[in-house]
Amino acid sequence: MSAIVEAGSADRYELVVGLEVHVQLRTRTKAFCRCSTAFGAAPNTQVCPVCLGLPGALPVLNEHAVRLAVRTALVLGCTINELSTFARKHYFYPDLPKGYQVTQYERPLATGGQLEIGVLEGGTPIMVGIQRVHMEEDAGKLVHDRYPGATAVDLNRAGIPLVEIVTAPELHAPEAAGAWLRVLRHLLVFADVSDCSMEEGSLRVDANVSVRPRSQVALGTRTEVKNLNSFSAVERAIALEYARQCALFDAGAEVVSQTLLYDEGTDALRPARRKEAGEDYRYFPDPDLPPLSLDAVWIDALRANMPEMPRARRARFMREYQLTDYAADVLISTPTIADYYEGVARHHADPRAAANWVMGEVLAAVKGTGTTLDDFPVRPSDLAELLDLVREGQVSNSAAKQVFQRMLEHPERPRAIIAREGLARVADPARLHALIDEALAAHPAEAARLAAGETRLLGVLVGAVMQQSRGAADPAAVRQLLAERFGGGAGG
User: Fold this and answer.
1) What ranges in 392-473 are assigned the alpha helix state H?
2) Residue 276: its pLDDT value, please?
3) pLDDT, tens digit, 9 for 90 and up, residues 129-158
4) Spatial separation of the C-alpha atoms in residues 93 and 100, rounded to whole Å
5) At 204, is the secondary structure helix, strand, or coil?
6) How many other CB atoms are there within 10 angstroms of residue 316's CB atom?
7) Is the dihedral of CA 403, 408, 410, 412 positive or negative?
8) In the prediction, which pLDDT does 454 show?
């Protein structure tokens, strides 16, 4: 439990958290019209009469959004309702042009389900229940920093398709909430439901927080912290609200049901408004949208064609490629990393060497260049060819790293680079002796100390020869020839 809680409060009071997670579905068009969902467009350029809520405009449900929503429910083990309905949720906000949001209320898309976030010491899984998964549309966005002293409205997001995932109130620590969200994000990205980019608003979280004495069964008064857009913000906001409610209990004061906002800049919560009840939204069935009827055969077909999920892929990687736990975890951290690695491993005879290169050189290059594996210049098959050449002894590991750098700069087959730049492995004794002579001439002091018996200088001179040959020399042969030249005593 967070260190900001007063000493003893964690012993007296239990934290109870439920999360509401809004996930933008990976569609090209909006939920009820054909406007683009592309991120970063100029304000108010991706709008039409439907998402602007103009009179007479009629919505048409996006079938692909339904497909992705059902896939979300399947990932979470929910029961899919073959008949669900859309409702209008009424509230006023400047970025909600219709004055209501299309959502699902009494008959959601799916209910039940659960998500495992870890295991207890005895191996018992830690499960968190899912109450419901439903479809809805997004509102627009208020922009506070474009015009001095004024707030602008960008309606490009209005009508973007979302699923809302509502957990049971079964999380009891800020860190547990963070863990649940990380597992959820991992699953949804692998299921190709959403990119779950919190920076772009594709995954946003509301945390419902209450506190109760540990002897009490009934839940305490709930507050809601809205629109959290990072895992750290979720954990910090829950910890702050837990501490605040514990302090109110200790002072004999009442917890008021309200909506709060968390400011990461000041690390503080501030009240936004009183917490609405269901009747405040005046829900009623949307007269423009018929009930959503799903065929059981269609649902089963989606279930049968689900992408391979992280746990299954991890187990298969360890079984087929003999990876360590650590390597398997790194290589399934995203679908693109997993796909890239498997593309290399399937073309190269040593899957562990492939894993080391992907985890090392490849991911370092991705991070260093700010690119992604989706547009990475070195194709998996070309990297596999380079590793084949290392395995066959045609190029040293050191020279292979130089070849890899050239492939990053100018996509080209590794054999062509090796031939052009003279990086083929040098094992010919005459050529190696010439390289050794050049290195010794360039490092006379080290050569003299090695001759005097300072055997640790052997590695230094091997390195000098490798540098002289631009990594092409066979390091084992160089070491052997140096040891022989200096009387054999340097070989240790």
Assistant:
1) 397-409, 414-421, 429-442, 444-451, 457-468
2) 64
3) 999 999 999 999 998 888 898 999 999 999
4) 9
5) strand
6) 14
7) positive
8) 75
For the cut 50, the answer to whether the pLDDT of residue 69 exceeds it is: yes
Percentage of the chain modeled with pLDDT above 90: 69
Predicted TM-score (pTM) of the model is 0.84
How far is residue 437 CA from its own chain's centroid? 52
Residue 281, amino acid: Y
pLDDT at 70 over 50: yes
DSSP string across 339-404: HHHHHHHTTSS-HHHHHHHIIIIIHHHHHHHT--GGG-SS-HHHHHHHHHHHHTTSS-HHHHHHHH
Contact 40, 70 (CB under 8 A): no
CA 320, CA 332: separation in Å to the nearest integer?
A: 14
Q: What is the pLDDT of residues 285-341, one digit of tens each?
A: 999 999 999 999 999 999 999 999 999 999 999 999 999 999 999 999 999 999 999
401 DSSP β-pair partners: none
Looking at the DSSP bridge assignments, the partners of residue 273 are 259
Instruction: Give the separation between CA 48 and CA 44, rounded to whole angstroms.
Output: 9
Distance CA 32, CA 160 (A): 8
CB 95 within 8 A of CB 142: yes
Please give the span between the terminal C-alpha atoms of the chain, in angstroms, as a whole number: 54
- Quick one: CA dihedral 110, 113, 116, 117, positive or negative? positive
Q: Are 454 and 482 in contact (CB under 8 A)?
A: no
Task: Look at residue 259 and tell me whether its pLDDT is greater than 50.
Answer: yes
With beta carbons less than 8 A apart as the criterion, state whether 299 and 305 touch: no
Q: Of 455, 389, 466, 398, whose CA–CA distance to 432 is shortest? A: 466
Q: Count Cα neighbours of 317 within 13 Å in the Cβ-side half-sphere.
A: 32
Strand order in the sheet with 284-285: 100-103, 87-90, 284-285
Q: Interhelix angle for 414-421 vs 397-409, to 10°?
A: 110
More confident: 492 or 352: 352
Phi/psi for 44 (5° steps) reads: 60, 30
Average pLDDT of span 244-249: 94
176, pLDDT greater than 90: yes
In whole angstroms, what is the distance from residue 275 CA to residue 280 CA?
A: 10
